[in-house]
Specification:
This protein is mainly α. The protein has 8 helices and 4 strands, in the order αααββββααααα.
Amino acid sequence: MVFGLFNKQPVIDPSSSEWIFSAYGWALQNFDADLFYNDTVLVCPTDEFFPDKVHSVQGMAESIFERVKVYAGISHWPTLVQDQSMCQLTEAQQIRIQGALRGPDGITDESVGDSQRLVIPYNPQQINNPEGMIATYAHILSHHMGKMAKTPPPGGIDYWPQATELLAVFLGFGFMFANSAYNFRGGCGSCYNPYAQRDAYLSEAEATYTLALFCQLKGIPTAEVTPHLKKYLRGIYRQSVKEISNQVPQLDRLKQIENL
C-alpha cells in the first residue's frame, strides 16, 4: 500500500473526462466530422498563423479576428468587429449564412449591410494578450455556432459556457484556451492587467485535456504540441495523452461518428 502513495492522480476526474468525450461527440455530430478530420488545423500562437502587422488597435483586432474566422472555417459569415465600448449587444442577434455553416461550401455575400452583420466585440486591453484575444473571439463564435446545433450539448444549458469553449478547441484553438485559462496575479501591480484577461470556464487541466483529445483524434504527435504550451502544462498534456490513449472504446466511438 505504501507504493500507492506515488501513483499519479488522473489529470481530471472521471466525470469531467466522460463529459469531455460526450461533448466531443456532440461537436462531431453537429459541426461536420468530415471537415474536422480533413480540414481543421491546430492553430499555433505564432507569426506563421497570425502574420499581419497592423499599427492601430482597431486594425489589429480586425486582422486577428479575420484569421480566426478562416481557421474556424467560417470566413463567409457576415460579421462586424467593434470596440466593446462602442457596441450594444443583444441575445437576439441573428445572421443569415448562405451555403454550408462551415467550410469551403459557404457562400460570402458582400452586399450584407452592417446592420445585418453579427457584431463581434473586442476588448482593446487584450491587444497585448493575443492568445487571450484569440480565445475570446473563438469562444464568441462558438457561442453563436453552438446555438445552430440540432441537438443540445451534454448537460444542457448548465454546461453551455464549457460546451462552447470545448467547441472552440474542436475548431482548432486549443493552445489559446490552455495557455490563457489562468494568469498569475502576483508580482508588481503594473505587471498585471485584469482587463486584458479573459473569463475561462474550462480549467487549465480541462482545457489541456480537451486539446489532447483533439490531437489524439487528429493524429498530431506530442512533439509538435508541447513547444507551444506553457512549460508547466507540458507534463499535464503528456499525461492527458497517455490517459486518453488508454480509453480505446471511447476513442473508437468518436471516430465512428458521422454528421447529423
